[in-house]
Each structure stands twice: as structure tokens, then as C-alpha cells.
Design a protein that fits this description.
Blueprint lengths: L4 H34 L1 E3 H8 L3 H13 L3 E4 L2 E4 H5 L4 H5 L3 H11 L7 E5 L3 H4 L11 E5 L2 H7 L5 E4 L3 E3 L4 E3 L1 H7 L4 E6 L3 E2 L5 E3 L2 H12 L1 E7 L11 E4 L6 E4 L5 H9 L3 E4 L1
Parallel strand pairs: 4-5, 4-9, 5-6, 9-12, 12-14, 14-15
Antiparallel strand pairs: 1-3, 2-3, 7-8, 10-11, 11-13
């Protein structure tokens, strides 16, 4: 049987396409494994590791999201099983540590030399710790056990809020914490968030934590949100604030531009770290 040149070319193309398909699946398997082990994957870093164009990685991530194997976020993706549950302290500390430090460095410029401030729980706000040391005229009100441990032995005055301590966040929460906040007032509140949904709503994993965040904001003159780029386009069960509720948002330079524009349109001053 004679085979035409056209048939030969077609057969070769099929073999090449099949080979490329296998390579793509192998590449996607690596992407899923990396997101599961680290909780977060950056598209640019993944492209370097795989020696492919970043556009290729983005297409792979889109495919994997449609399969339900991960969730796309700005700049990369989060593994679905890690997104579905609350991150532990070690997991949080390993997520964007450099960005959190940059945010804390910029946010520290808004710490007054005297008076009272409120600092929320969470690893992003905890990064403010070194900037709060040895300020004898400053009172730090916090529900963060980790932050309290950082500044307790310095000359800075410390008020640790009462309440039940959650093991996943090492923060005091609940009705007792909210009650404790009722008689306390602050010049500035530094507030963290688990996620910022597509409509700009600030959300938390735990309803008790959300109530504490609301109380912190209610008793502060100025409200500053601290969130890195991974927090955008992510939604958790408990809502606690809208963009208009904040005076300022300190975030990273690679935050989604549309979300930055949304915050700005709501009257929030966005400061990029």
C-alpha cells in the first residue's frame, strides 16, 4: 500500500501532538504537586523551573482549575485542598514571607510614637513586631499571642485582649474579646484578612475572628488593612468589612490592578510595598 506525503506528514503531526500532550500532562502533574506541597505556586517561578514560557504555565493552570485540581489566584494558583481549609501557622509563615515583611515595613510608617494602636492577629500583622519594640509612650492592644510574645519584654506598653485562643491562628477571639474591646480606643488599627473576594469584601475563616476584627475597626480612628497579593480574589466564610470601611490598604506591587483600582474608587488610599 502506497502512503502519500500528505499522509506521512499527518501521521508525524499526530505523533508530535501526542508527545506534546504527554509532556503537557507531565508538566501539569508537577504544577499540582508543587501547589499541594507549598500551598501556593507563582507562575513566573514555575515557568523558570519547567523551562517554558509563562503563558504556557498560565494555560496549564487554567486547565487544572477547570479540572478542580487547584484554584487560580493573581500571579499563580493555590491548591484546592489547601484553600478549602484554614492555613495553619507554619503554612501561613511559609506563604509569601518576603511580601509580608515588605508590607510590614511600609505599614510601620503609620505607627505613632505615642498613644494606643490595635494590631490584629495573623502572620502579616505579626510582622510588625520588630517595629513596635521599645516605644515607652505607645500602647499596643492585640489579640495575637505571637505578637505579644515579641514585644512583652520591651518598654512598649502591651494590652493582651482576653478570650479563647484559637490554635490555628494563635489569636484570642469570641464574645469575651469583643467585650474587652468595648472600653478601649485606638488611633490606628492594623487589620489582616484571610481573603478579599471578587467584589472587594474582606473575609475571614472564623466567624468569631470576624467579629473581633469588626470591633477593632469600630474602636479605632484610622483603619489600615494589610494584605499581600495572594489574598485577592479569595473568599472565606465570614465577611467583616467592605473597602469603604478602611482608610488605607498596604499591599504588594504585584496586587491585581483591577482590585487596586476598585479600592481606590472606594476612597481607600492604596500603598504599594
Amino acid at each position: 500500500m502506497l502512503v502519500s506525503d500528505k499522509q506521512l506528514i499527518t501521521g508525524k503531526n499526530r505523533r508530535v501532538q501526542a508527545s506534546m500532550g504527554m509532556l503537557a500532562e507531565e508538566r501539569r502533574m508537577h504544577l499540582v504537586e508543587w501547589t499541594r506541597s507549598a500551598g501556593l505556586i507563582d507562575a513566573n517561578e514555575a515557568a523558570d523551573k519547567l523551562a517554558v514560557a509563562v503563558e504556557t504555565v498560565r494555560r496549564d493552570l487554567d486547565v487544572l482549575q477547570r479540572r478542580g485540581l487547584l484554584r487560580r489566584v493573581h500571579g499563580g494558583a493555590i491548591a484546592t485542598e489547601k484553600f478549602a481549609h484554614e492555613f495553619t501557622i507554619p503554612e501561613r509563615e511559609n506563604r509569601s514571607p518576603q511580601e509580608k515583611q515588605q508590607i510590614a515595613d511600609v505599614a510601620s510608617k503609620y505607627i505613632p510614637e505615642e498613644g494606643a494602636i490595635i494590631v490584629d492577629g495573623g502572620t502579616t500583622c505579626a510582622a510588625l513586631g520588630p517595629y513596635l519594640l521599645d516605644k515607652p509612650k505607645l500602647l499596643v492592644i492585640t489579640n495575637s499571642v505571637r505578637l505579644a510574645n515579641t514585644i512583652a519584654e520591651s518598654s512598649t506598653k502591651l494590652y493582651m485582649l482576653a478570650g479563647r485562643v484559637r490554635s490555628t491562628s494563635l489569636s484570642s477571639v469570641g464574645a469575651r474579646t469583643v467585650e474587652d474591646l468595648q472600653d478601649l480606643n485606638a488611633l490606628v488599627a492594623f487589620i489582616g484578612t484571610n481573603g478579599i473576594s471578587n467584589d472587594g469584601t474582606f473575609t475571614a475563616y472564623d466567624t468569631d475572628e470576624a467579629l473581633v476584627k469588626k470591633a477593632m475597626m469600630r474602636n479605632s480612628v484610622e483603619k489600615i488593612a494589610m494584605a499581600d497579593q495572594t489574598k485577592f480574589e479569595s473568599t472565606y466564610p465570614a465577611s467583616f468589612a467592605r473597602p469603604k470601611d478602611f482608610d488605607r490598604l498596604v499591599t504588594t506591587v504585584n496586587a491585581p490592578q483591577r482590585e487596586v483600582d476598585r479600592m481606590t474608587a472606594a476612597g481607600v488610599e492604596v500603598v504599594l510595598a
